[in-house]
Automatic annotation (TrEMBL):
Residues 1-19 form the signal peptide. This is Uncharacterized protein. It comes from Gigaspora rosea. It comes from the Eukaryota. Keywords: Signal. The keyword Signal applies.
Length: 104
């Protein structure tokens, strides 16, 4: 019975952690080509990101770092969106808990 409870708690935690999403658009104000990322990792959408939406459930421990040609241009842990960011970027790095978020 204890093992079953532990397995259920682990599954619930994994579902919660994977509930984040990052949406990127090629134009300001959420227009143009878009890509959505729902997994941890480093992603290059193939276009310059000019607006974005980061949706991360409260206290899930996940964050996103935005990078432009290997340079850090910002990061968010709580949910955030911006239709006209001060810097364009071409890479996002998503991680949770103690994962290092490093621009490449």
């Amino acid at each position: 019975m204890l093992l079953k409870c532990i397995v259920m708690m682990l599954i619930a935690h994994l579902v919660l952690v994977s509930a984040f999403s990052f949406e990127a658009w090629s134009q300001n104000n959420f227009q143009g080509t878009s890509k959505t990322y729902t997994q941890r990792g480093t992603f290059k959408p193939g276009f310059t990101i000019k607006s974005y939406r980061w949706d991360s459930p409260s206290n899930d421990g996940c964050c996103v770092k935005m990078c432009n040609d290997g340079n850090d241009v910002g990061d968010w842990c709580p949910s955030h969106s911006n239709g006209l960011p001060s810097s364009d970027f071409n890479e996002v790095v998503i991680g949770c808990n103690d994962e290092q978020l490093v621009c490449t």
